[in-house]
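[Automated response] Your request has been received and processed.

Submitted sequence:
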Amino acid sequence: MWDPAQYLAFADHRARPFYELVARVGAEEPRRVVDVGCGPGNLTRSLSSRWPSAVVEAFDSSPEMVEAARAAGVDARVDDVSTWEPLPDTDVVVSNAVLQWVPSHPSIVEKWAAALPSGGWLAFQVPGNYGDSSHRLIREVAGSALEHVFRAEKPVLDPVEYAELLADCSTVDVWETTYVQRLAGPDPVLEWVSGTALRPVRAALSSSDWDAYVAELAPRLREAYPRRADGTTWFPFRRIFAVAQV
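Generated structure:
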């Protein structure tokens, strides 16, 4: 289950990649713009501001996120990324930090690109930090008993692999950025991953086992990402972006 409040605890850090992604979309007057995996809807509203004449469609697989988006004034619905297909008038599809949760997403990306009308835009970004200390420690502390909650294969592709998926599009723009984020608080990296990467672990554990897991993980994250004298912590976060016009 997604927790919108936990996810929004770092709203500014999570928003920046979205804005940098959408800035590369060159659509001028799209008919329909779709936010795939809209989350709590805080970023979806900017799509309506960018393209006021467009129909903005928004959905997420989490009922909790959709409820939060609706409370924020976004006409969102519950839907499944893996089965959704763009309508014929869809000119822009945006997916922000969603596809890493979908094992079949490379084929989905190809399907979406093929379904968009000529001149349509597809833009997505995914985290590229699965080899970093944060994710390594999450797995180490979980141990073999929780191996089933993690995917065996790499959750995302390399930038060149995404470019190859979109090679038949008229324009392809793929890049990666490492944001060195300045986080605050006694356990800021733990708080960050609690809103995303730790969700499967939390769902698999009882309350007491979860408390024990966090008690072991927290000091290891503090060691890997030491707190500075001013109380802040540097947290490098790599993200992979792809924007294509069909």
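Summary generated for your ticket: The chain has one domain: 4-245. Residues 2-10 have pLDDT under 50 and may be disordered.
If you did not submit this request, please reply to this message.
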